[in-house]
Amino acid sequence: MFLVLSTTFYTPILVSSKIDIRNYNKHCASVVPESTPNDVPEFTTIPFAAKQGGYFLGGEDIPNHHHPNSSRNHYPSSSRRELFIHTHNVYSTDADDVYKVEASLILKTSDMASYMYNDTSPRGPLSFEVEGFWSGSTGKLCMVGSGSTSSEKGKHHLLPALLKLDGVRDSNNISSLIGGTLESLSTAGDSGYFKPFSLLMIPQNHYEYTEVGKALDHVCTGGVVVPKSLSLSLKLSTPICNVFSRWDTAYKLEYSSGCNSTSSCNPFGEGAGYLPQIMSLKVIQCLEDTQSLRFLIEFPSYADYYRPFTPNTTLVAEASWDVNKNQLCVVGCRIFNAANSLKKSRIEDCSVRLSFRFPAVWSIGHTSDIVGHIWSNKRENDPGYFNTIMFRSYENAGVGIPGSKYEYTVVDKARKSCTEKQPRKSKGKRHPDANSNDMKFNMVVRNSKRRRIGWGSSEPIAVGDQISRRNGFVISSSSGAAYSPVKGETNNSIPLNISYSMSFPLNESTHVEVFSEGIYDAETG
Questions:
Q1: Looking at the domain assignment, is residue 180 inside a domain?
Q2: Disordered: where is this region (predicted)?
Q3: pLDDT tens profile 319-341
């Protein structure tokens, strides 16, 4: 069999032009006055990381010219919108602490829900080529330039633009944010006109860990105390950046009983409008040598998992590994912002604490390889206080920390039941080894009326006391065999303890996961 593969690379149209000083002075002179740049680019001072990411709101009024058959606008209100600034050159000028900057601003959508359910093509990114001046002392950056979209007939629509950013500094900490706007320089009604975008970025350059740089014993106090022996240590040979950089790891939140009052249970108070059930991490920065990280921690609703970036239900956080407690200690800060504008976002409250740990012992119903809790370091009567929330990674996140063991608690019931109904051993038949991939299987699920309601799957959690890792990138444990052979018998003649996870739909809206323990005899299957 021969496969013929075709790959198409999409390159956004870039519109490049030298800075229009008249245009710059008209719109930017009061922000950062023009200065004469040197001829040679600067490499020691840059406004932010060479590829700085962030988020934006706006763009609903820009026609989706990339897909002429689509009636939707370029950035529908339901899409997740991300920006990237690629800095090309920075020049020092004859004014102290003022630099000329050349860059690309790329705006794109991650509208995954639309792709999956509406069978639509991704909208192409918008790219703006911009130039201007940055003042390191005021943190302001003002740039002019243009971008374009193209129609189905190949006609380009020029989008003259003004980019203004505030908070671009050469020293940043957990409370630092970069806010700004992208405005049209065309007149309303012109083909190149668009309504203003609001922008928000978490600075990556020149960052100082001000919260977890302190003694961690004082940072992560007041939460649930877990004995160190119940959590796995993070060895120096295990890269902490690999452990927490998996973008697809989601965490299920578990509230204390009677948690119906959002004011006392919700980490964002009543303003969130819902009690979050899931949590996800986006790594901003990771330092392997100090085992420190920076996160965006988002708490989306189930209905809007791929929603636009929402500051009011997002934490900016920094974290460091605590060797004395075998846990990641995290300080989280709430983001406050004005309605429908990212530009005015600010950080005022860093009272949220989180801890992540890797359980050393698993058991039925406790089969997540990352668990932890969220709490407030405020007093119970203070505004912003909330009750402690537990969380766990969905299923086995496959983070690859070796050493965890499985502890059986109900297998004796299964062993007693199964020995009474044991099938006879037949010669000539072979059955899968307990550790083989054949122990994972799919199932057709039917209801009591024999009507098929969907597909399910089943896979081992543990064979013997050894955790069954679910992907090929995981470091396997070297602590020995899954069971101990009995003298005078072959290994296959011993029924093994085994733990399973079974997942299937209960109906159209509900998915069920069942955890189980039992025994497996490879001789009888």
A1: yes
A2: 59-78, 417-437
A3: 999 999 999 999 999 998 866 68
172: helix, strand or coil? strand
**Domain match, 185 and 232 both:** no
Asked whether residue 206 is domain-assigned, the answer is no
pTM, full prediction: 0.82
Residues 415 and 395 in one domain: no
Nearest Cα neighbor of 147 from 136, 157, 155, 137 is: 157
Specify whether 191 is located in the same domain as 265.
no
Q: Of the candidates 413, 406, 506, which has an alpha carbon nearest to the alpha carbon of residue 461? A: 406
Written as six digits, the tokens of 405 are 């063991």
* 503 CB burial (10 A radius; 0-12, 13-18, 19+): middle
Q: What is the CA radius of gyration of the chain?
A: 28
Q: Are residues 467 and 433 in the same domain?
A: yes
Concatenating the DSSP letter of every residue in 234-263 gives --TTS-HHHHH--TT-EEEEEPPTTTT-HH
pLDDT in tens, 260-272: 656 688 898 877 8
- Identity (one letter) of the amino acid at 46? I
End position of a domain, from candidates 401, 425, 455: 401
Residues ≥6 apart with Cβ < 8 Å to 100:
19, 35, 37, 90, 91, 93, 131, 132, 133, 134
Token pair belonging to 162 = 């003004």
Biggest distance spanned by C-alpha atoms of the chain = 93
Q: Is residue 13 part of a domain?
A: no
10 found inside a domain: no
Counting Cα atoms < 13 Å in the Cβ hemisphere of 330 gives: 26
Strand-pair partners of 142: 133, 164
Could you tell me the CA-to-CA distances from 410 to 337, 340, 369 in Å, in that order?
A: 51, 53, 21
As a whole number of angstroms, the distance between CA 396 and CA 518 comes to 19
Q: Strand, coil or helix: what is 498?
A: strand
Q: How far apart are CA 366 and CA 181, in angstroms?
A: 47
| Same domain assignment for residues 75 and 112 | yes
pLDDT tens by residue, 67-77: 444 444 555 55
Nearest to residue 313, comparing CAs of 355, 357, 262?
262
Cα atoms in the 13 Å half-sphere on the side-chain side of 434: 28
The SS3 call for residue 153 is coil
524 compared with 500, residue with greater pLDDT? 500
Q: What is the rounded distance in angstroms from the CA atom of residue 506 to the CA atom of residue 495?
A: 31
Residue with tokens 């962030």: 54
Supply angle C-alpha 296, 298, 304, rounded to 5.
145
Q: Note whether 420 and 295 are same-domain residues.
A: no
Distance CA 56, CA 230 (A): 42
Residue 490 and residue 362 share a domain: no
